Amino acid sequence: MRKKLTKEHYIGVISIISIILIIFILHIIKGNLTIDNSEQIQISTEENIQTNNKGTVSLMLLGNFVINDNVLTTYNTQGLSTIIEPKLQTLIKKADIAMVNQGFTVSSSWNAHNISGETLNILKEPEINVACMSNNYYRSFSDNISSTCEALRNNGIKCVGGADSLSEASACTIYTYNNKTVGFVSVTKLSDNTDTTGCATDSNGHTNPTPGVYGESDTGSICIAIKNAKKKCNFLVVNVSWDSNTMKEDAHKFVEAGADIVVGATETVMGIEYYKDTPIIYGTGNFINNFSLLETIAVKVKINKNNTCSLSVVPCINDMSNVKRLTGKKRKAFLQKLNDMSTGIKISEKGGISK
After folding, report:
1. Distance CA 157, CA 184 (A)
2. Are 283 and 264 in contact (CB under 8 A)?
3. Are 295 and 317 in contact (CB under 8 A)?
4. SS3 8
5. How far is CA 168 from CA 146, 162, 165, 268, in A?
6. What's the pLDDT tens digit per position in 77-118?
């Protein structure tokens, strides 16, 4: 006599068949499951994730970061939010690589633009990756270049444009992210016949090299350094502290030499243009400085897979070493002013820049 199958038997058989079908389906689709035709869940390895993101990098380019012991004391006692507003900090930290034009030295000696601490948490906390050093601040205090470079390296921050010799100061600093190499060159474009105080030199067989910044009056020599740098990277950022009388002519030559973006390290915000499809930011202004009510811009750059880039700006105001984003009517008025001083571009209400 046959044994009658119970309801429990049928449920068990159906469960086993269901499990087999699920395993079979998952094996076929290999990790891709579509839900509601709008949301896709990917089961992927870390290697797959890296491959999917390969080739795009985001930059945040900031202006002069000038602090002294008073600013540092405020930071140490009250925190970074008293220096950089929290929402602006978040924007900086979201960037893959953040760059500043550093306007202070690290040394045991005292001067107007020096901090005496051995650590650089004021740069590490907002996750600054690259510090450009070729500017007038370092020309005044070149004797502290070596100690500052050492402090930056010890804190995981790459320095560019200042070193113990001209060969080192003029060299391209490479930052590798997401399988893409981003190069940085920092230079002070000297006026003709100006003195070279604070500029680095190499040994000439009779004298030892001297620490200092990469300072050069000959545009052709700078272009050679840019050409050499471009050979070593996918995307090249050229940061310039320059003579305003020749900056447009110089910027165009830097682009022709291989710069993928040119950024002016200036105390005030200047216009923006594209030359040969390459963006030129003529001046970013003081990001942090002990002055009142100075406008500045944070420049967001997205490097695409084909090494072109797209730009947007974040309008900010620096007030006695406290920087925050402009909002409302002040933001709108500033963007219009920046648009008016620029050539051949349009700036959207959100800060996006288009040709």
Report:
1. 13
2. yes
3. yes
4. helix
5. 12, 8, 5, 29
6. 999 999 999 999 999 999 999 999 998 888 766 554 556 555
